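Project standup — Tuesday

K.O.: blocked on the structure for the chain from last sprint. Re-posting the sequence here as requested.
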Amino acid sequence: MRNRTAYMEEPGTMHIREIEVPQPAEDEVQVKIEYCGICGSDVHYYEYGRVGDYIVDGQFILGHEVAGTITKTGDHVTSLKIGDRVALEPGIPCGKCEFCKSGKYNLCPDVRFFATPPIQGALQDYVVHPADMCFCLPDNVTTEEGALVEPLCVGLHACRQGKVEPGKTVVILGAGCIGLVTLLSAKAFGASKVIVVDLFEKRLEFAKKLGADYTVNAKEQDTVKAVKSLLGKEGADIVFETAGAPKTIYQTSLLARAGGTVVLVGIAVESDLNYNFAQVMGKELTIKSVFRYCNLYPLALSAIANGTIDVKQIVTHRFMFDDVKEAFDCVIEDAENVVKGIIEL
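H.V.: unblocked you, prediction finished:
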């Protein structure tokens, strides 16, 4: 078996070489990766070598949105078998800390997460992973859709954090992949009106196709004025920031109504940012943040399988593994048109 692996040796570079095929421990499975989504964090690492306080040091393998087929099982694995198609939840928590024991394992301080320095990613032919973090795909869910479960879980967790429910009005800043899975999730949760804001008209047109009630082009309109003209001067019940841009993060408190909720989803390259806390205090806003997700893979797979959420709609660009550098360059250079890129291995 060949194990082709894509290494980023420094920002902006990518080289494919073969490494040894990993063998599963007693409670692990070996998976032939078939699809790997290109996440915004992957792009930040590729372009800048860091995301917030996470800094790449040395050669690095990207990729954490993956799905594939089990090719070998560890001696103690009974819940999965060779040939099962699975989506891999990319974080491996310790299982012992207070956060793990309370169900919030995404906050585990010792979690090992694909493509989060110093842990290497899954952009390779074969990986090993704990069996209990691999989820079987229903027969009517494709392996490509399986790789999209990971970003969908971010959108579902964001809506859970924001307590989206029927009748709520929602603003989503950013119409990239995470903005759009938040849109799909908000609609599934019953939001009555969803406004999506972005700089690129093509992305906004895409958002309309996915169910946005209104869109605002931030290049051509004043975002705050445009949103309030659509929702009234009070603003939105819930504002999601998914772009990770200092300007849109700043705008969240201006867009939320009194007593409303701001959910910070996007991660900025910078660690320190300006924010209008006078608005927060004056409106008694609730600020929530999103760090990955927890306990959502089964829900996401069920929503895809029963047709509640059609996640495959977000994929706009597909690439083959041999073209991995071109894939990342395309996502950066053609940001206006690329909503979601995915790599087939």
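K.O.: great, moving the ticket to review. The first strand starts at residue 4 and ends at 7. The chain has a mean pLDDT of 95.
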